[in-house]
Amino acid sequence: MYNELKEIADSSGLIAFGVGYIDDLRSHFDALPLDQTEGLLYGISIGARVSASVLKSCIIGPTRHYLHHYKMLNLLLDQTALKISLAIQDRGYNALPIPASQIVDWEKQTAHLSHKMIALRAGIGWIGRNNLLVNPVVGSKIRIATVLTDMPLQTDKPLERDCGTCKRCIEICPVSAIKESQMEWNKAACLAKLKYFAKEHNVGQYICGLCVKVCRPM
Hints:
By secondary structure, this protein is of the alpha+beta class. It is 33% helix and 14% strand.
């Protein structure tokens, strides 16, 4: 079924598909009760490419054009996750699609689970200095979603890579929230700027796009 599910992602125009074993991560899914994910040992991670041309409009922050593109990618991911879930259920297994971008705790800015952690297990990328997923082909120009399932699937290996000497995201960050080490990323400073952008740039959502725009794997 791995190839069949991957074909659903491919035919939807997605650029990334991977599977990881995630049973040990279930206790970290703060917004999902343990009994809801019981037996769902595998995480399917899917990714859609963000348009570099759309991102060019983000000079000092997000634009309405980028906001629309961002929403459409999330919609595509959610629709594809649903298709994958239905295919799994048709085979008699359980599937739990997780929305690509649905905040359940606004103060902490957290979702049902960390899509990035699933994507790491699924070999789709690594966590960059900007605290975003970095894909070896498109960098951080990727939006991701997740499907949890009890269908036994072959798993992918995590990538043993990092950002190397690249520091483009450090140089472009308007609040210097990004540091040499990903562990030093200043979430508070980043979030404060996102709140500012949401209001002052009339986008109404916590997005930026600047570090995403310049991210190019070396």
